Amino acid sequence: MQHFKTLSAYLDYLELPSPEHPMLSVFFANGEGFLPCPKESSPPITNECYSISLKKIIKGDLNYGRTKYDFNNGALIFLAPRQILQWDSSVVYDQKGFSINFHEDFLKGTELAHQIKKYGFFSYTANEALHLSPKEEKQIESIVESIDIEYQNNQDEFSKDIIISQLSTLFKYANRFYERQFLNRKELSNDLLEQFNQQLSTYFNSGFLEEKGIPSIEQIANSLSISQRYLSDTLKKETGKTSTEHLQLYLIDESKNILLKPNKTIAEVAYDLGFEYPPYFSRLFKKKEGISPKEYRDKYKIN
Fold it and tell me: Which ranges carry the HTH araC/xylS-type domain (predicted)?
């Protein structure tokens, strides 16, 4: 897989103009302007840059995960360094919009270098783009326009600080709009929880728990065609519990049925549920239920 260490090398591969700054590029099209066209297609590649782009689809169908979205409004896409990129020529984008690319070293020594790690949208896959309303799109474009003006100016000792500040503002607005997007996806989130539990049920009934152990959240997310971070964030927003907590609750719920079978020891129940260490199962059970597995068995056993 080809990897690009510098911003210039990455843009050159995309057949885009060289950047005005060695670690930062801004392509902004407003009014009659147009974005330069990148390569029509590419095999998997990686680079060391952050990318933020606003694009609109004008031709072709694009599904995000298992869900088809309305692309009449802009889709804001965030990519972090070393994420795998790949695309083909089946989808055509409107050339109006913007694209900001900056090398991760551009943030070195700034507060944003630490803050950017808390923004979950940089760890999402492309199927969790941020879908902007027209009003939100204007707000974001206004910030990017300010970044572009500073980018086009002659660089001085204030340039980087100003651009970093504007990028920070952009991310804060994006974070706010992501919150709105999660709130507006209640129906999708409820369906996602149902699918999550169905995956666990299928895994449990297949006998994989004893054979392979407890599935990871990443495994479950992959089976649902979404990212691990998106799965956990969405469930957390709608239920107040993360994907890990839902997995634990599912296992504890299953354990209650097995605990009431008198021919099973507590250790055997733990192994049946995929726990490698029975004491961990006992601690988790007590944490969730307030009593130990033995106390639960004694309390509810059939005389």
Answer: 198-299
Query: CA-to-CA distance for 35 and 98, rounded, in angstroms?
Result: 7
C-alpha span between 77 and 82 (Å, rounded): 15
Strands of the chain, DSSP E: 2-4, 24-29, 42-47, 49-59, 63-64, 67-68, 75-79, 85-87, 92-103, 130-131
Three-class SS state of 61:
coil
Residues in the chain: 303
Residue whose pair of structure tokens reads 């790690």 in the numeric block: 117
Take residue 91 and report the two structure tokens written for it. Answer: 């989808």
Per-residue b/e over 131-161, b at no fewer than 16 CB within 10 Å? bbeeebbeebbebbebbbebbeeeeeeeebe
Closest CA relative to residue 55, chosen from 37, 43, 32: 37
CATH topology for 187-300?
Answer: Arc Repressor Mutant, subunit A (1.10.10)
Q: Which of 227, 220, 268, 207 is nearest to 247 (CA)?
A: 220
- What does pTM read for this prediction? 0.64
Whether 51 and 101 have beta carbons less than 8 Å apart is answered as yes
Per DSSP, the residues of 15-60 read T-PPPSBTTEEEEEE-TT--PPP--S-EEEEEESEEEEEEEEEEES
Give 52's pLDDT tier (boundaries 50, 70, 90). very high
The angle, 0 to 180 degrees and rounded to 10, between the axes of the packed helices 228-239 and 186-205 is 120
Distance in angstroms (rounded) separating the CA atoms of residues 98 and 108: 24
**Average pLDDT of the chain to the nearest whole number:** 82
Query: Per-residue pLDDT tens for 41-50?
Result: 888 888 999 9
CATH class of 2-184: mainly beta
Can you give the residue ranges of every domain in the chain? 2-184, 187-300
**How far is residue 284's CA from residue 128's CA, in Å, rounded to a whole number?**
32
